[in-house]
Each structure stands twice: as structure tokens, then as C-alpha cells.
Queue: 3 jobs
Job 1
Amino acid sequence: MNRKRVMTAAVIFVLLCVGVISCAPEALGVTGGSSVAETSCAANPCESTGNQKQAVVSGNSVSRRVELREYEDSGWPYLYDTYTNHTDKTISSRQYCMLAYDKEGQPLKLQWYIMDSSDKPAYDCLYDDHDEIIPGAAADSGWTLYDGEKMTGWPKIGDGGPNRVAYALYCDRKIVFSDGEVWENPGYEDWLEKYKGKSVPVEELKNYYPSILAVTLQDQDG
């Protein structure tokens, strides 16, 4: 596994005043948890419409931020994901897709599971996350990336070169709630068609987060 989870000790103020989009880690060791989060528009210029803000405040959405970081102890690169549950139900599991791009916005084929020598390079990685996230809480996770220059002694992957990932796009395919309800993202296939294996303008990659995904639950229909 190449996933590392870290506890969030402070209240997370999620910046939710950007446009709503259809969507917008396994580690060497696992720790994890979630924390209560608040939504706030005060810290960011409000560019969203009233309907978009209402979707968040009324509790029928999830949001996330993903950024490239380095582990303090080793300097190895990883993707840090903060995911917040703005629904009134507990999330029991999620299935989401990850895509990676270099600094020029070109798509990258990665060996996503760096401890699995049989894992083949691919543009996408579909991951099943079984962390429980209660209403109003945020879960933090990290996905370790390969860097041949920093991971000395590690089995060579590809040409053994440095990490080329500069940006990553994540999107939920489905969300399972603790009461058994399963929500499937109706925009997932369009998202995958638009981004998988395709070059993306750097400005679009820079502005992809925070992403907000509106979720329609059975008791909210109609």
C-alpha cells in the first residue's frame, strides 16, 4: 500500500465560493481520521451563483482539495486530499478516480501502486476508499508518488526518473452512505471522457480546486 492518512487537528474552513463542477491515496503506512469542518465564503471572493451556494449550505454536496506535497521525513512526493462531507448522512465508502498531469498540463501514465511490481502504468486509477466520514467532517489522505531521485534504494520504476506530477484531478464515481443508499455521479463518464489521457490547460488545472459535487439523496428528491 502507498497511502498515508493524517489527522486534521484544527477546524477546516473550506472555500466554497467557486463554480460548481461535476468533480472537480494507498501508502507506505496508514494513519487516519476525520474532523468537523465549517463552510465559509468570507475568505474567498464569492463568484458562485446563489444556487451553487445553496447546494452547499443545504447539506447536499461534498467538496475536496488536492495538492502536491512532500513528506517531511523523506521528501518523497505525495498527493494530499482533503474531502468534506456536507450531507446530513454518514459516508461509509467512496469510489473515486485520480488523474495526473505534468507542469505543462500533459497527461501522465503512472504506476499508481508503487509497491506492486505487477501494476501497469495507466492514465487513471480508480480507488475504493472505506473511510467513514460523518456529516460536517473532513477526511485527509495522501497518495505516495514515485520519485527515482529521492527514493534511493527503491526498486526502479520506468526510467527511474524524478517525479513529474505537478497536478492531479480527482472525481467521485459513487458514494455509499451508512444507511445503504448509493449515490452514483451522473457526470462521471463525461468527466472521464474530457480529462483522461487529454492535455489540459495549466490555468484550468490550477483553478480546478476547491471542487464541489452536488449530491441528490433519496429523501431530497422533488
Note: Residues 3-220 form one domain.
Job 2
Amino acid sequence: MKGSAVLTSELDHWIDELRRRRWSFYYFPNRHAPEIVAAVWLWHECADVILLYREDKMVAFRTPDVGDPLCPEWVTAFYGTDDQTTTVWVIRWALGLPEPGTDQESHYVHLMSAPASCRVERARPMVHRPGVQA
């Protein structure tokens, strides 16, 4: 990923803030050479997700699809950018979302089909359950 040292430093600061707040991170295809970095905060009834595709392309959204928040059908809030100067605002926007179920959340919640940029296309893991024949 390329970019100015100032913007990279600011982005690193906000990614560190997500870690400090204990968001879960996912790296695709792997942590050593990620093409996509996802940060997820799971609530009981929804998930807040940030997807970093490149240093200059990032999206954030809230989805009721807690079963698979990285490939949602629906979102209730969405913010995204293709502009390197505003990628940190995507993180700040996500961190500023009100708690689910509060009066403030009603200003953000509008159920809509998830844009394609909200879906991480990836191979699904094979699940093996002992005693179950495939």
C-alpha cells in the first residue's frame, strides 16, 4: 500500500485504536500479505464492520447479518471512500456509530441491500463434525 507518511501514520493510529478497543481482525488471504483487512465488532443483534481494501479504499457498515458479517445481504448503515485523504474518516465514522437499540441509532438505521463493496469474496472453510457423514 502506498501513500504519504502523514496519512499512513494517521491510518496506523486509527487501526491501533481499533485494536485497543478489541475489534477482531481478519486478513485475506493471510496476515503476512493481506489484500483485504477486515475489522469486526459484534453486538448481540448486529455487527459493525470496516473493510480496508487499499490505503485509499475503505468501507464501513453495520449489518444485522451477525452469522456472516463479512458477506452480508443487508446493511443498516454504510460509509465508504475511494479517496486516500478520507479513509481515516471511515474508521472514525464506524467508531462513532451509536449503540444498537438506542434512540440515537434511529438516525443511522435504514435497511438496504448491502453494496458489493461490503462483501468479502473468499473460499469458505471446510467444516468437519465428528460422527456426521458428508
Note: The chain has one domain: 5-118.
Job 3
Amino acid sequence: MIRSSVFRVQACFFACILATMALGLAGCDSFQQRLRFLDLSAGAEFSDARFYVRAGAPERTLSSRDVNYDGTVDLNREQSKLDYFYSVGFFPGPVPFVGSDGIGDYMRMSFTLNSPRTFRGTLHNYPDDGRVTTNPMTATTNLLFPLPDAIGRRTEFVFEEYRAYITLFFPHFRSENWYFGIGHSFGQSRYNLDLLEGTNRVASSRNAWMALHALQVVYGYRIGRFFEEGLFHQTYLYFELIADSPNRTRLDVNLQRADGLPAASLYYRNTYTRIGIRKTVDLWTTDSVVKEREEIEKQIEEEDRRADDEQGAEEEKNKEEENEAGEEKEKPAESTEPEQAQPTEYLP
């Protein structure tokens, strides 16, 4: 009951964010301009998936386990995984109801849908270290002082997730050839989780949802400046760091310890370090290309017509000059000798 209520609150919160963004976009005169640019990203990433439980007061003070500074206990060892990724989303634009004036010039909002990811590994001593007991004192002692990882309980996990989130960047700086932003991401993750011991599946979750909150830092440089024409015109080489916030939402896992009590809630967080290529695509590029092509064709026709007119005028001028030259040749040559005076005759 509690988990379903929490999920409803998270879903309503995410829906409110989407509704606010949609209303903000719908209230703008340039609705098409806000949604016309689509980002396609691909590259390589290092990811570090962590599964952990929250330690209680006795564990933080007495337990032999390594308790983190935020009161959590990691169940799997650090393992950076190199993988490829791709994502689609909308180019960061002005925040709805804020605009681009004043402080709004340093704020941007974007939407991202990530490719699915799969993580595999081992959980150590979860939900307990494997020792069976019905004595409450012994069970508490086993919880505070579990067996070493090498001989304790080992549970294999297979975790798959899809992420969709909205990022609010503040501050966000940009110029013609670069951009830099720091922001908070809010969204949802749809995941599948299997916990296996040998060939037995001890727990499973299918198509479950988890709220997301992460800190994001991104820097991009427009390599398209070196390709002013062609496919790479609006292309960025970018570096991105995404760190999930801890202690947010637990995974939907139902397990029992050996003493019959429910297992501690299982949490998940991840850290992504990415480098990749981001290509901005104009969704209305077909119409714009057609219009641009029509304008170019009109210009070419006008230039051809102008060239034909100039050529015709030049040919007429040449013909007139040739006619004048022919007429001058046909005229008899005028004598340049002075006329002799005729003798005057006198009548008798």
C-alpha cells in the first residue's frame, strides 16, 4: 500500500512537469519553433551501477560493514562498465513561462529518452549472509556482523532499465560554437529486475517504475563549424556527467530473510560519464529544403533570363555596328582635290 501510494505521488509529479512544459509551449506563438529541433546522440559511456541498502542506527554505530557517509551500505563492488549508448530528445530551449529575457537567458529545459541498458553482477549478503536462525538475538548479531563476502551469500542480479527525463539547466551558457550547462534531471525509469541464486529465481520485478533525480553537467563543442555544408553542419562533440541522487526511490523487490522477517529495502543509483556526438535535426527540414530549393531555382531562372537578355542586347549591338560598317564601305570615296575654276566665256 505504501509503495503504491509513493508511486502515484511520483507519477503525478512527473505528469505535472510534463503538463507544465506542454502548457508553456502551447501558450507560445512559436510552438513549432520550440519542438522543431530533435537531438540524436550516440557515443561511449562508463557506468557504475550501485545497489545498496540504508543502514539503521545500530548498523551505523556497531556494524562491521562499511557504511558510506550518507548512511548506506553497498551490496555490489565498484565495477565501471564501458558500453555504447544512443538517445533522442529535444534541443534545450527556453523554460516555459520564463522566456529568454533577463535570468531566463541563462536557463534552459530539455527532454531526453535514453536507450535501454542491462547490468549484471553479484549482490553480497543480501537479504542476509545465508545463516539460518530463528533466535532474534542471533539474527540481529548476524545482521550486524555478517560473513565476509568471499564466503557469505551471493545473489546474482540482472537489471534492465529505460530512462526518460526532463533536465532544467541553470546556469546554461552558450555561444555560436559551444555550450555549457549544469542542471537537475527529473523523470522516470522503467526497469526489470531478476535476483538469482544458482538456477533459482528468488525475486523478480517486471515493468516496474522508479522516480529519477540526477545532477547533470554537460559541455559541447560544435565541430560542424568545420563542415558548413552537409550532414555534419549542426553536430556537436560533447562530454556529459550524470550522477543519480541517493536515497530516492527503492526498487520493487519482495524478499524475506532467513528469520522470516522482510528484507531491507533495495535501492539503486548509477553514475554515467559519456563522450559522444550530438546531431541536431530539423523536423521541418523537408519543407524548408523544398522552399529553399524553389528559391534557388527562381534565382537561377532569373539569372539565366538576365544573361539571355544581356546576350541578346549584345548581339543586336554587334549587328548594328556591322551594318554601320558595311554602309560606310559602300559609300564612294569623296575627292579631296580642289575644284578647277571654269574659264569665263565672253559673248561678242
Note: The beta strands are 37-54, 72-74, 81-93, 108-114, 117-124, 154-174, 178-197, 200-222, 235-244, 267-282.
